[in-house]
Amino acid sequence: MTSKRRTVTLSSFADVRDAYRHRSLRQALYDEGSVIMAGCLLDLHGEQHRARRRLENRLFRRETFRHFEHEVLPGTIEDVLTPAAAAGRADLVDLGYRAVMHLTALIAGIDRPEGTAEETDALLALAIKFGEGATMVHSTRPRDVLRAEVLAAMEGFDARFFRPSLERRQALVRAVQDGADPATVPRDVLSVLVANVDRLDLSEEVIRREVAFYLQAGSHSTANTLTHTIDDIFGWVAGHPERSGRLKSNAALVQRCAHETLRLHPASPVAHRRAVTACKLSNGENLNAGDLVVLDLTAANRDPSVFGPAAEIYDPNRVVPHGVMPWGHSFGAGMHACIGVELDGGAANGHTGPDHLVGTVALMALSLLDQGIRPDPDDPPSGSTGSARPHFERYPVRFGPLETELR
């Protein structure tokens, strides 16, 4: 007789932290999204995960992030934001996706030889569909319909983007094996996987899903966090016009705004872990193999014992205890801690200066604020209708003097 599988929910900051680090708990949030996530780094456990992570970690170093933040992203943001500001209005969700699309394609290893608006639109549509597939556990749409859409998108992705990018890197890796300069191989996820395909026993299907995962993960989470960050800033400034002046060109303050938004609005409101063996949690709860553990990140990130009695309130000047990240558990911890945390959120060391990492979200928010972004008074934002995740589906904005519009 087998025991019935249970679901245990953890909501305190300490319990979630310890569960993240528990070696007998494997990632389980993406089981339903296997159409895009099966075999990906985020879905692996144990030695398979360690081997893949060791390789991909080499791409996610601080000097690489610094290059992206100082050399790549500013030009991309300008290319996206300039026409939007000139038009006087835009959709913030769309702006976020477009501003980060080039960066995520570089990291994933997807070439964009045409460099056209149509090519960007096509890749953006695929990344959004892959994001729907990865977060299928929270989708409100019929699973079979969504799964079929993701599979069709993967076929289109393979033909237009993945296969040409793959074949180019295979040729470059072979050339290096024959004595060519290793610097000719791009520093991206696809290149790393191609160079280690035999060592990791990787199928082409797994490589394609891994690249698609990186493509959607960076764009999906960053665009949604940017939208929440600007929305929170609008609320923080409303009724306090002096705050808008403090934000302008103030990278340190805008970064703190982004961190506070990340705490209050994690990309996923929960994380899931499943026990691979019978084990015991730090709170004394005994689990059987197969039991599901739900980590309530929203509640844990608002734990008053850690973030104070006003933990529910948005406060970019919040002081957190030593050893606690300002974004709480939103980037995870343990073996599945977000590999690109400093790319998205920047460095959380409180330092300033030319070499300080502000993070993609804060950098984009700074540019938007300097352009005088403001809510569209005639077209309010709306939440997502296809997912239970509390994200915005559209967020119309206008551009102009922020101080005037929010008085």
Quick gist of this model?
The chain is α+β, with helices and mostly antiparallel strands and 407 residues long. 52% of the residues lie in helices and 9% in strands.
Number of domains: 1
- CATH-wise, what's the superfamily? Cytochrome P450
Mean pLDDT over the full residue set: 91
> What name does CATH use for the topology?
Cytochrome p450
Strand order of the largest sheet: 1-7-4-2
Can you identify the CATH class?
Mainly Alpha
Q: What is the CATH architecture assignment?
A: Orthogonal Bundle
Which percent range fits the helix content? 40-55%
Amount of beta strand: 5-15%
Class by helix and strand content?
A: alpha+beta
Shape from CA axes? Answer: globular
| Unreliable segments of 5+ consecutive residues | 402-407
Q: Let me know the largest β-sheet.
A: 4 strands, mixed
Give the ordered list of helices and strands: EHEHHHEHHHHHHHEEEEHHHHEEEEH
Radius of gyration from CA coordinates: 21 Å
Main attributes of the structure:
four-stranded mixed beta sheet, disordered C terminus, 407 residues, Cytochrome p450, three-stranded antiparallel beta sheet, 52% helix, alpha+beta, globular, 11 strands
Overview of the molecule:
By secondary structure, this protein is an alpha+beta fold. The chain has one domain: Cytochrome P450 (Cytochrome p450, Orthogonal Bundle). Helix content is 52%, strand content 9%. It has helices spanning 13-20, 34-37, 46-57, 62-87, 92-108, 117-134, 143-177, 189-195, 204-237, 241-247, 251-264, 297-300, 304-307, 341-345, 360-370, 402-405, and strands spanning 7-10, 25-27, 89-91, 270-275, 279-280, 286-287, 292-296, 373-375, 382-383, 392-394, 396-399. The strands form four sheets. A four-stranded mixed beta sheet has the order 1-7-4-2. Strands 3-11-8 form a three-stranded antiparallel beta sheet. Helix 7 (143-177) crosses helix 8, helix 9 (204-237) packs across helix 15 (360-370) and helix 11 crosses helix 15. It is globular. The chain starts with 6 loop residues before the first strand and ends with a helix. Mean pLDDT is 91; it is low at 402-407.
